[in-house]
Amino acid sequence: MPRQFLAEYPDDSARFDEMFSAPGVPRAHYAALYQRLLGQTAPQLRELFNDTDRQIRDNGVTYNVYDDEEGSGRPWAMDPLPLIIPAAEWAGIERGVQQRARLFNSILADLYGPQQLFHEGRLPPALVLGHPGFQRPAHGIQPPGGVFLHILAVDLARSPDGQWWVVNDRSQSPSGMGYALENRIITARLLPELFRELRVTRLASFFAALRDSIASYAPHDNGLVNTVVLTPGPYNETYFEHAYLARYLGFPLVEGQDLTVRDGCVWLKTLSGLRRVHAIIRRMDDDFCDPLELRADSALGVPGLMDVVRRGNVLLANGIGASVIETGALAGFLPGLSQHLLGEELAMPGVATWWCGETLAMEDALEKVDHLVFKSAVPHPQGRRIEPVFGEDLDEDGRARLAARVRANPRDYYAQELVSISRAPLLDRSHGRKLLARPVGLRVFAVATPEGYMVMPGGLARSASGHDARILSNQRGGGSKDVWVCGETAGAPISLLRRPVEAADLVRSGAGLSSRVVENLFWFGRYSERCDNLARYLRVALTRVTDNVDNPGEWKALAALGKSIGVLPADCKESEAVRPLLRATFDSQHHGGLASHILHLSRTGFQLRERLSSDNWRTLNALAQKIGTKPHERVGIFEALAQIDEYITSFMTLAGFALDGMTRDHGWRFLSLGRRIERLQFQTEAIEAAMKMGVKGNPEWLLEVSDSIVTYRSRYMARPEWIAVLDLLIADDTNPRGIVFQTAGLCDYVERLNASLGDMPDSGLDALHRRLLALDPGLDFHPGSRALGEAMVTLRAASASLSDQISQHYFSHAEEQARVIA
């Protein structure tokens, strides 16, 4: 059995094998995992993948690979087998990363301070001052506690002799912590017995230290610290992680437009006005953070942010300019800098490096070109990206061209020794009962605390896309693994720096929600209701076009409603309606159709990632994944009706989450406003369309579209008649689909918002509500009623006006509207 299991496992002595010390002989810390794998059948092993994929899909874990057709919805790639590291070995990694973080912080303190390293000849000025990551506006800024580097990520790789080497450092806005946490949650659920048996060190203490240390370094305002996570937005490749970390840490996720600078401070735009921001964990590149002092064409940043940082009125983690230490060209100078700045030998060596800005180093590297890889020393020299060039791939002409490029711009290049990095096991997805191996690297994270740098006990393992790949990159299709530090370890002491919550700190209103979040909640409510309305209409319309029941004027009314809601073309004949209806159901390119609006709902929900529960996410993901699975030309009516039934069930589930799973704060109120405005508009359109049938028409389809047929039958147990149908759908204040029910709720919500957030201009809805109540069912509830027709038109216009007023009053922050919250 082991022979079959390892039939395709490579026997490559040029690489260190993480699992095996010899062919078929597992290392001690991998023995339990190996025995477990041997004891599993092929279906059981395949189920590991199925469970992994299911959790990734249900939790909405995505990673945007640019130019990938799945875009921001591309699922995160993860192998269920963890990378396992013994505690004793991890202790050495931890010490090396802690020292490296201290060293880089000292380097940044000098570069943005006295710059003695230049004057003493320990660093060439051209290496730093010519690097785009060196931000001159940051020179002279002294951050709280002297901490320039709050978060550091270090990429490690193991050489054939088992030694861990540093390959890269990430300091600008290091990514991967959230993915590491999600990987851990998944593997702990997949392999719970093994997780306990190996005594895997948990990650929670690291994130607690991150949360509390940020608060400890931030300027304090009456003892309260408001921390936010700044993201460039949902189109960033790691947006899932931004939202995930914000939610896990309990911080608002904000975009640049959510923040403003006034009176030398940063403020968050909320429903109640402006709220002071004391700390920002940024996930945005330096250049984009402040268009006034950095990149002028940035639409993502916060104008004036650098001035606030300079004043010491906000903590920025990491500080602007930290990316200058990301260049690999610095590696060759670190051993000397460690001795000079820390008085210590560099604990964890980097791969041998030559910066071509030094003539002797450049010539030496070009002589050894066959054994080196040449990389860009700057992020985007002259507006273009330099891809790594492997000397072993070049012929004589290729080497000559490389030498010419390097000599033309020597400062833009550095060379590193090419090392065959270690390989780790992964299961063959196509077979399930075979073990494969892929090159693997390790990203380790460190966070600054008042007690020193703390290292995450584990990290993010990144595996290559192929067995002979030389670059580890998720953007190039690579995968990931959880990292288990196993064995007895002494837990790092955690200082609970945040003061306990007191009575004065209690929050119950939700008025501190950012305006952008509330706007997304409002539109989430509108899109969810619009999808439900469309689905119910499509179900009724598809059913009616296949029935042989003669109902005078029915199709004319259904076609009129279909046109008004953007589903059917004008003057669509009943005999020609099936294709347009199916297209509206399944074609995401049909902009007025159900499929298109489900994607709008999903995208709006994606921007609320930190606000929605896991149950909400599973329902949303299930909805979005059904879109585009089958062309509408190949779908029959029976299959379409079955799919619509599933959609409606999902929409009812989402409505249930809003009803039972959300606190009745302002966020819920705006979501509900969106739902009621949308329902009011649809119901008025449906009633107007139905009235076109005249008194001889049967309004049963109107009851079905309005989800009120069961109520009607239970009350009247007879064929639908106009006076009873219109009374139920208009004047009955107990019917959640009724017009009066919507207007009463809208008036109540607006009154509550006005009471706590300031009055909006009068939309006239309250007067219209009273006008509805004054209608006489005996005189007005019939298709020919002019008063009823005018009421429907006026209500629809009033609801549209209310929507505009809500946007203008609550979602924008003009000077005269904003109120400052201490």
TrEMBL record:
Residues 82-464 form the Circularly permuted ATP-grasp type domain. Residues 513-811 form the DUF403 domain. Pfam families: Alpha-E, CP_ATPgrasp_2. PANTHER family: BLR2978 PROTEIN, BLR5612 PROTEIN. This is Circularly permuted type 2 ATP-grasp protein.
